[in-house]
Amino acid sequence: MPGRTSFRTFRRCFASEVVRVALPLLLIAVSISSSGLLTRVDHLVFDLGQRLNWRPVPDDVLIVAIDEDSLDLLGRWPWSRDRHARLLRTLCASDPAVVAIDIAFSEKSDEPFADAALADAIAACGRVVLPLVIESTRVGGQLLETPPIQPLAAVAAGIGRIGVRLDEDGIARSVDLREGVGTAAWPLLAEETLRLAGRLPATSAGKAGSGAAGTAAASHLLVREEMRRFEFVGPPGSVPRVSYAQVLVGNMPPEMFAGKIVLVGATAVGLGDFLPTPVSALSQPMPGVEVQANVLLSMRDGRLISALPTLSTLLLAALLAVVPLLWLPRLMPLAGLLASSLWVLAVGTACALLPGLLQRWFPPAGVLLAGLFAFPLWSWRRLEAARRHLDQELRQLRASLPQREVAVASPAEIRRLGFEQRIAWVQAAQRTMRALEAQRNEALAFISHDLRAPLAGVLSQLESGDACDQARLLPALRRALGMAQSFLWLARAEALDRKAMEEIELTSLMHQAVDEFHSLARQRQLPLVRQLPDEPVWIDGDFESLQRSVANLVHNALHHAPRGTAVTIGLDCAGDGDVELWVRNAGPALPADLVARLFKRFSRGERGASASSGTGLGLYYVRAVAEGHGGQAGVECSDGAIRFWVRLPGADRGEPERVP
C-alpha cells in the first residue's frame, strides 16, 4: 500500500507539472493567433514557402510588355490609343484565347478618333477584358470606382478589377474575389479573363456580390469579400513576356499568340506600376501586369489559398502548442532542447509548405512562440521541483545533523538562498554525513577490539568454572565501563546545542574540576598550580561538558608530566571577548605528526608507561566540546613545556556567521 500511495502521489505531481506548463503554452498560442501580434512572422513563413515552391513556367499565358525598349522605339508615355488599337488588331489576328489589358482607360483622350479606333478594335476582337480601378480622389478622400470610358466599356467582353491587397508590411500576397464601393460587385480581372477563355474552375469563381449597402454612409465604404492568397510561379520575370514594340512592328510570329491568354501591361521601371511581393527578395519589385498573371494562374490551376477558419486556427494552435509536453517530461535537458528546436523547425517548415500542398494557410506564429517557450517553461518547472527537493533535504538535514557539524540554514534563510547555494549546502551536509559514517565505522572497529577484549577475558574466566579472582576481574570490567562511559560523554558532546546553553561562571567550574585530582597529584608528586582570576568569568556554555573537558586536560597532564614538576591550570581573557583556559605541564616537545593527530578519535600519546592504557577519546572529547561551544582547542610546545588550551567565546558574543 505505501508503494501504491507513493506512485499515485508521483502521478499526481507529474500531471500537475504538465498542466502548469500546458496552461501558459495554450495562453501564448491562442492569444498570439487571435490577436495577430506576430503577423509579420506569419508573413515571413508564408514568403519562405513561396520561395520553396516554384512551379513550372506556364506556356499558355503571355505578357505583352510595355518595356524600356518599347519606350525607346515608340516614344514617351502615354501613347495614342490608336497605337493600342493597332496592337489589338495584330494580336487578335493571331487568334488568342483572350486579351486582357492592364491599362486604365478611365478618361477620354485628346484624340476622339483614337478612342473610336480603340473601341472598334475591341469590338472587332470580341475577346478583350478591360480593367476597373478603385481609387480615392485624394489622400483619405472618398473612394470611387473608375471603369473604362463608356465607348470602350460598351464593347468590352468583360470588365474586372486590377487591385490586389497589400498586407501590413506592404507586400502583395492576397486578393479579394469580390470588391466594390458600397457593395462587393466587381470580380477580378483574372477571373473575367478566365471566364471568357472558358478556363475558370468552379472552385476559383467568386460568389455574387452581397448587394447594395444598407445606408447612404455605407455606400461610400469599400466592401471586400472572399479574401484569398495566391501563389507565384517564380521571381519577377518568370512569366513569359514579349516587347510591345516588337509585336506592333510584326517581328513576332502569329502562332506565338494562338490559343493563349495575353495580358498587356507596363513593365518599364519608369511607369511605376510595380508591387513588392514575397518572391521579389532583394531584386526589383514585380510589375503589376505580372502580379495579375500570377493571380490568373493561381485561379486557373485551382491554387488560390484559403485561410483556416478562426475557430479551427485557434483549436489547432492550442493542440500544437502542447505537443512538446509529449517528450519533455521523458527526456534529459539536452535531448529535450534538441527535440523542441526540431519541433519548432518542423512546424515552421510544414506551415510554409502547406499552402503549396493543400492550398490552406495556417498562421503559425502562436505555435512557434509556444514551441520556443516550451523548453524554458518545462526547465523552470524542473528547477522548481529540484529546489523543493533541495529545500526538503535541507530541512531534514537541519533536523538530523548536529549544527556544529554543518551549518544548516533556517527555513526562512533557505527561502532566500540561490540555487547554487542550496546545492553547496547539501553537498557540505553530504560530506559531513560521510565523515560521520567513517567515524561510526571507526568507532565500531574500536569497540569490536578494545571493548570486546576485556569483556571476552572476563567471560572466559566465568565460563571456565574455576574460582573467580575478583582482583583479576575488576580491572578489566572497569576498563570496559570506562570506555563505554567515554563513548556516552562523547555522544553528548557531539549533540551540544548552543541555543540550549546557559550562562555559567568559568572560574568556579575550573576550581571544582581541579579539586577532583588532589589525591592523584599527591600520589604522583605533582603540585597543582592555579593561575585563575579572582573575579568571575561568564560564558554561555554547558557546565557538565566543560567540567569534563577541564578534567580530561588535568588528568592528561598528571599522567604525562615528569615527577616533581608542576602542573599549572590557568584562565585568560582575550581582548576580543574570548576566554582561554589552559593546562601546562613540563615535557619534551611533541613530534609534528603526533600534534597533527592528537585531537582525533582514538589517538593516544606515546609518552609514559600508561600511554597506551587510555581510550584515545579524551582529547577528541575536549575538541568536540570546544567546537560545540563555537570555540577551538589546540596544543603548544615551547621552553620544555606542553600547553593544552581551549578558546571559547565570551557571554557577550553572538553566534558566529554560518558559512556554507
From TrEMBL:
The chain crosses the membrane at residues 304-327, 334-355, 361-380. InterPro entries: CHASE2 (IPR007890), HATPase_C_sf (IPR036890), HATPase_dom (IPR003594), His_kinase_dom (IPR005467), HisK_dim/P_dom (IPR003661), HisK_dim/P_sf (IPR036097), Sig_transdc_His_kin-like_C (IPR004358), TCS_sensor_his_kinase (IPR050428). The keyword Hydrolase does not apply. PROSITE patterns: HIS_KIN. Its EC number is 2.7.13.3. It holds the Pfam family HATPase_c. It catalyses: ATP + protein L-histidine = ADP + protein N-phospho-L-histidine. It is found in: Membrane. Residues 446-652 form the Histidine kinase domain. The keyword Transferase applies. GO terms for molecular function: phosphorelay sensor kinase activity. Keywords: Kinase, Membrane, Phosphoprotein, Transferase, Transmembrane, Transmembrane helix. GO terms for cellular component: membrane. This is histidine kinase. It comes from Accumulibacter regalis. The lineage of its organism: Bacteria, Pseudomonadati, Pseudomonadota, Betaproteobacteria, Candidatus Accumulibacter.
